[in-house]
Protein 1
Amino acid sequence: MPSIFAYQSSEVDWCEINFLHSELVAEFYNTFSNVTFFIFGPLMMFLMHPYTQKRSPYIHSVWILFMVTGLFSMYFHMTLSFLGQLLDEIAILWLLASGYSIWMPRCYFPALLGENRFQFACLVIITTVISTFLSFLQPTINAYALNSIAIHILYLMIREYKKTSNEELRHIIHVSVVLWAVALASWIGDQFLCSFWQRINFFYLHSIWHVLISITFPYIVVAMALLDASYEMPGQTLKVHYWPRDTWPVGLPYVEVRSDGKNC
């Protein structure tokens, strides 16, 4: 049995041809496409800092985990090691768990918890710890389980999309769903149609997935922040802005906190 640190000790192998550009990097494009996590993570932490100060300092942990996810994904695709696979998937699991704990609207909490966010966060953390240990037993199904969690988030966003009249929120949700769908199509295409892509010498779908999902995540965070504001930030509204400029057709979304101007 090969060491968990050994190159290609993982059962997962993506469509890109291994060691084509370097003897040290198994999947060159899948490795370095993760650089977007290190660009968008610090940038979003900076842009969302005023909101984080008013909402919760734990939001910084989301962006730290976002960058850790990019780091572990880079390590996994560089080595295709079993350890790299586990670290990659566990980082994603904890990233999603942190988002659940902070932004899940109280109306979706389990009935037995009422609307107690602390108890909900404890439940999420306990579940995540258990899932982390279980991931060592069936590591090959982790990616599908993680995408199932993403589908649940998508379901909640679609429900809120149908309920809200907030045009900013509707736009953010619409863009998030489209980006996520295109990203997921890239992931599925690389996983299940590899022979076709190899015949036409196009091995980049999984690296495209990395770039798209790193762009999608900030949109989802902003959407969840807008949903969350009515529960957690009474008397204040959130205004969506885009970096580098609001007037540009494409940008990275973030929120500005504004007072409603109402007296207590």
Note: Residues 205-232 form the longest helix (28 residues).
Protein 2
Amino acid sequence: MADLKALPKGKWFCCKDCERINIALQHLITREPETLSDDLLTLLREKQKNNDNTNSETDSNSEMKFVVLSGKNATREIRKYLAQTVDIFHEGFDPIIDATTGRDFIPSMVYGRKIWSQDFAGMLIAILTIDSNVVSAGTLRVFGEDIAELPIVATSKGNQGKGYFQLLFTCIERLLSSLRIRKIVLPAAEEAKSIWTKKFGFETLDADQVKLHLISQFKWVKLPTLKMG
């Protein structure tokens, strides 16, 4: 990490790893949606076969894809996905209101906008689609090689309980692993903590652990937080 005496002009990075990750992410958001691999689809269908809900199995002719998007300078096609994502988040969450402006954080997070002291320009959206319709989505922000933040995740109401978020999370995990990012943090409501800890292997962070993991250096979404290392 550089010992800076003053802020450099133009675009700069604190270290080579941050530059490497930024280049990879910028390349990622320009790619077309990726068709899911057979191993992931097999895992999904096995889960759905074991589900008591007989209507949960995905049509074998459905096309499932994973893609990471940025709301900044989005094309019309991308904005369609982002609008669907906002709707899914609003199905699952009450508006997250900024105390200063009274505006809802959720659309700003999805479209990468700034609200007062919160700048979501670096926020990315990871989505899982079936036949070009968003079924599960998560906001994703990377803070160098140490930490990635997953502030909001949700699955559309008609598709909950079918394994789609587990599939999306696996795609996100593989992506972050390929970038050599060490940890994922996320805020979790008290009633949802057990799902994250028991199903996904997260651990609850206390205040001392937050400092230990250097999260206090970043302006992140401050809600009760869990970590997966």
Note: DSSP finds seven helices and eleven strands in the chain.
Protein 3
Amino acid sequence: METEKKISSVQMTDRDLSEQIKQVTKDSHERAENTELMLSFQRGKVTLPQFKVLLCSLYEVYQALEEEMDRNSNHPGVAPIYFPTELARLKTLAKDLEFFYGQNWREKIVVPAATKRYCHRIRQLGRENPEFLIAHAYTRYLGDLSGGQVLGRIAQKSLGLKTSDGLSFFAFPGVSSPNLFKQLYRSRMNSVGLTEEERNGVLEEAVRAFELNIQVFEDLQKMVNISENTQQDYPIKSTPVNTLQISNTLIKTSPLLKMVLGLFVALATVSMGIYAF
């Protein structure tokens, strides 16, 4: 109900879809920026566990979004904002995940329930209401394009990375001027022919997109917190090796024991030699 009120008031003041989305999502946008995960970025204190789980979820979300955008690329609600060459993020995310997790990174991806709900919603829209993908594409692509360079530098400094390896997601080599491209994207989006009902649906979906992102950020931070608490509760401790104490007197008075100890030392020496190579 609250969302519907916001949408009604927005329609009376501005007819550009991009401006309407910006207005109806203002509160949600602020809430997303104030999640613990995003605050860590803004404060330059993002940790490697935070960054890695974020990449995992972004990969799943962009896989769903880009597959549905590709499948509906000729749909009148999708075609005007279909820029795979300039905006596609899936390959960059795969490159970053391989950097942090290794070649078998696909086997190591773990995402929370909120990410799965987000992906399910995107795929549902791809099947039933492709024009509503406008809201998700706008929220993700333009958001990442706007903050990409800044967040990339923050992540590089926070994680202590000496090169841009692991930060491909933040680079948009196909976009020479982010500001000019965003203007083009908004004009294309504003040109999409939508009925009043469809426009309302896109605005509602934009709010939903931000809410889904907030849920993902919160779930990811919970994952990181649980992992850190587990490590604190069950720290990995090295087990001291107990040394066998045998008195010199016993060794001197027992020829058999001397022979057994000598054999043990010889076997130990051979074993160490094998593992050394």
Note: The radius of gyration is 28 Å.
